[in-house]
Write a structure and sequence with these properties.
Elements lengths: L1 H17 L19 E12 L2 E13 L4 E14 L7 E19 L2 E18 L9 E19 L7 E9 L19 E9 L6
Antiparallel strand pairs: 1-2, 1-8, 2-3, 3-4, 4-5, 5-6, 6-7, 7-8
Amino acid sequence: MKKLLLLTLAIAIYTFSHAQQNPPTYEDGDKGFNGSRVFLGGSINLGFASGTFNVGAVPEIGYSVSELLDIGLGLNLNYYTISAEYNGGVRQRSFNYGGGPFVRFYPVQFLFLQGQLEQNWIKTNLRDDAGTIGVPGGTYKLTRSATSVLAGIGYTQRIVGQSSFYTAILIDLNNNPNSPYRNGYSNEVIPIIRAGFNFYLKGHRR
């Protein structure tokens, strides 16, 4: 996790020190709703911790409010596992779906801060290898829900009206043991790594 954060920071510093300043991507007086600011896209989730693996997809639709701000809505499909060794003798396999609104703030063109409120519904299959919650070898199915508050930092080459690729690292700030971004047994936070793209429905017009 620390190495990944340092790598992201190094890329950001290098890009900032070598990139020329790009011209504004909004015309003066460009106010009100503009279809050229609507974008579609999505990302792939990848998370990992001790004995835990997490992979998923997040399609999204958004709107560039200004040079500094994007808002939007993301859907979430996610699959994650926790091995019995790290989960009190209980092997866990879970699938969740959900979504929620997000905000991205760009203090500089290539770097953004993201916050997202996400509601998930989770279906879980448990195999009790050690007899921790019942009969050894028994299987159980659960259906739960959880609210997550995701926050993190990302890297991109953003020009409003043009397609772009981005990467981001987020964590769930909400202390909910049912969250798909936490190890349910130890409540350990699972870092979320997202890599995705956005493209605008209409090319930007000068």
